[in-house]
């Protein structure tokens, strides 16, 4: 069976009034745990094989940048002095997710990559994107080591690679994953046609890319030998409408023309945070249905 997974974020809908009433009534409420539970339950209900925590604490840059001393969180993270990893609720979130999962469902811990963090920060100390990126990488390596025993997979997200690829990108990603024993994943959204041949040289086990919105990626993939499992985006994350199982199945069959089933995994193009909850749920449900139709 070709597995299904998600890339990262998932939208949730919380009743704000309940938390206001709880505050005034002295009733303890936990919006973070509630949002995490909603995201996980939606993925399990859709029968996703490898789920995430939904990244419900916030946007994927601030989610990790706030775990470093020397960083002030404003509209963007602002680096004011040498940074150092101080610990993260990310690991505890994965432990909470694990408790919610049926035994047969696997979990991936998803980390924002150091280059994306560096490019998304206002740097008032290092004065070099490369130096800042490696400082982030050293801290993220500690977080990756902490979460490795909790999850089944560790994924690094580097969306900036598709628009501004650094020649030291491999060293950054491999620094983060240096002590990880779980299967290692790298997700790069956008058009990776020009860099796919470089990404296959990384010491990772999975490469996940945006094929639904960028079907021309197959032209780049077909000419490159790679050993990784290819995570193929089969539903779009930038369109707030759920594709039908038939449309998704067609994309899956295109993937099978280029890659053996044992070297495939199906997922959305990217995170689903910007979609309506019902649309995100339908996309995941239809993706699994399409996979099942494929194998019927």
Written overview of the protein:
With 296 residues, this protein is of the alpha/beta class. It has one domain (16-295): TIM Barrel. The chain contains eleven helices and ten strands. The chain has helices at 16-25, 31-45, 62-65, 89-100, 114-120, 129-147, 169-176, 196-199, 217-221, 245-258, 277-295; strands spanning 50-51, 68-73, 77-85, 106-112, 122-123, 153-157, 184-188, 206-209, 229-235, 264-268. The strands form two sheets. The protein has a seven-stranded parallel beta sheet with strand order 1-4-6-7-8-9-10. Strands 2-3-5 form a three-stranded mixed beta sheet. Helix 8 links the parallel strand 7 (184-188) and strand 8 (206-209). Helix 2 (31-45) packs across helix 4 (89-100), helix 5 (114-120) packs across helix 6 and helix 10 (245-258) packs across helix 11. The N and C termini lie close together (11 Å). The model has no long low-confidence stretch (mean pLDDT 93).
């Amino acid at each position: 069976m070709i597995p299904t997974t998600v890339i990262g974020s998932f939208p949730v809908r919380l009743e704000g009034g309940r938390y206001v009433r709880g505050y005034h009534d002295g009733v303890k409420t936990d919006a973070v745990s509630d949002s995490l539970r909603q995201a996980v339950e939606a993925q399990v209900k859709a029968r996703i094989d490898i789920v995430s925590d939904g990244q419900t604490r916030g946007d994927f840059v601030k989610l990790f940048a706030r775990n470093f001393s020397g960083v002030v969180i404003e509209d963007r993270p602002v680096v004011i002095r040498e940074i150092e990893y101080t610990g993260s609720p990310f690991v505890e979130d994965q432990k909470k997710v694990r408790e919610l999962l049926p035994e047969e469902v696997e979990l991936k811990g998803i980390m924002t990559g150091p280059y994306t963090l560096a490019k998304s920060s206002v740097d008032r100390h290092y004065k070099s994107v490369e130096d800042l990126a490696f400082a982030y990488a050293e801290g993220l390596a500690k977080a990756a080591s902490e979460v490795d025993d909790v999850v089944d997979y560790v994924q690094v997200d580097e969306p900036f690679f598709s628009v501004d690829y650094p020649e030291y990108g491999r060293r950054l990603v491999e620094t983060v994953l240096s002590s990880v024993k779980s299967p290692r994943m790298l997700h790069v959204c956008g058009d990776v046609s020009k860099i796919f041949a470089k990404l296959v040289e990384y010491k990772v086990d999975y490469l996940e890319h945006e094929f639904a919105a960028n079907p021309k990626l197959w032209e780049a993939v077909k000419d490159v030998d790679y050993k990784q499992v290819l995570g193929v985006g089969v539903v779009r994350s930038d369109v707030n409408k759920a594709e039908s199982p038939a449309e998704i199945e067609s994309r899956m069959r295109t993937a099978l023309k280029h890659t053996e089933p044992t070297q495939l995994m199906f997922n959305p193009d990217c995170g689903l945070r910007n979609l309506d909850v019902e649309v995100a749920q339908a996309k995941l449900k239809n993706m699994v249905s399409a996979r099942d139709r494929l194998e019927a």
